[in-house]
User: Fold this.
Amino acid sequence: MKISSARYLIHQGFKGIWKNRMMSFASFCIMLVSLLMVGMSVLMAINLNRIISGIEDKSEAVVQIKDGLSEAERDELEKQIKSINNVHTVEFYSKEKAWENMVKNMSKQQQDLFRYADDNPLPDTFKITVINIQDMNETTTLIETFENVESTKSPTKLTDVLVSLRRLLVILSGAIVIALIIVCLIIISNTTRASVFTRRKEINIMKYVGAKNSFIRIPFFIEGMIVGILAAGGALLLTKFAYEGVYNIFNDDFTLWTVLGVSNLYPFKDLFTKVAISYVATGALIGAVGTSFSTGKHLKV
Amino acid sequence: MVEFKDVSVTYSSGVDALNRVNLKINDGDFAFVVGPSGAGKSTLIKLILKEIDATSGEVTVNGFNLRKLKRRKVPALRRTIGVVFQDFRLIPTMTVYENVAFVLRVIDAPAKYIRSRVPYVINLVGLSKKAKSYPNELSGGEQQRVALARALVNDPQLIIADEPTGNIDPALSYEIVGLLKGINECGTTILMVTHEHELVRYFGGRIININSGNIAFDEVVGGTNEDQ
Assistant:
């Protein structure tokens, strides 16, 4: 294709937006709302995932070790536990410290009762965190086979809940995104179909004078892409304001996250590039593909 | 050149539009196609433009065998044909110049050629002063002349005029056919479909009469204008 023709086609794309400004505006609004919905769903999923990860990081397993081990034997066991691939951190928690903490958390009456106990019944333990919470059970089972281990305790129910929650989140957010993209494509395709319909005469003449399908499609394609990119820009701005609003509420006034001991939301500046690229790419793609669907019908002359 | 060999068309509704038609229009011919409504004239044009395919038989247009022609090659066929419609089919948002230049842009012609060719053709149809006007600012006759310029600009081998005088004043009809005759004298084959017998009688030439899907008459007759 000659440069002059390419320039003409791009110019026609821009001109088309202005000539069909009402339709272009309708496409712009629909795409903006759709992108906003998709974007917000993804951001919500990303942040929920981060919160779940935070909870996962804090779930520990307790390894109870045999009484009367020497320091050397204890160090050897610690090394053994650390050598397991799925083990993230290992922290020794002495029976004295455990006793101290237990007494500290008792009521005054209970404290008086236990003050005179001359023997500490609690065992020495290791507190471990794992890399992959799904494999927590396998890890603790393996640890139980070590010689100087008495028993292990892990929050299996919580682990199962978290694993299911994460799986559900992936399926749910994926389904929402796919559904929204399909809905968006159908709506855009119908909106542009109306716009293409008003120009069917033009397309018809183009076909009679020997225009190739690509020549007819390119201006519509460019038009759809530009509207998509503009909608992406608008959606990006709205997402920024909405997200930062939510982020500020949770960070300034709401202390639930700190109470729960889970991570905070991602700051928007950390997500900006990814969100911007996704919006622009999705907007341009939906705009271009949507218009291609609707021009197809009128090309069969 | 257009050649029909034993061409039949039966629509999905069961209507036989053409029955074993044999027809040859040589390069440089001027032929009127006449006949009542529903006789098969439009089917004939649709076949030449490969809007539809023949049910049986073979159609050859400007060296293209339409039976063997693939869909993606149809633009190449249509670039050898200029079409003038009864309802002009001009793009209302484009000026006269843009409507004519549009054809050359579609076929990826060089910008320099467009700049020289378009004013030349607009001048040929006598509309130089209206080059910047929009279709709604022109009379019916002027609009049909723009359509003619658009059909001509690509220097096609064949021009199909589908009732080009159907929507204009009778007086202007003679002017349009006169223009088509002039174009034909320069070597372009013209196939003009019309209902206006007066016009056919006046200009004369080859007359193809289609009736009920058959060629009822195909002869060269003298025009009354030659008697004057």
Q: What stands out?
A: Residues 91-155 of chain B form one domain. The mean pLDDT of chain B is 91.
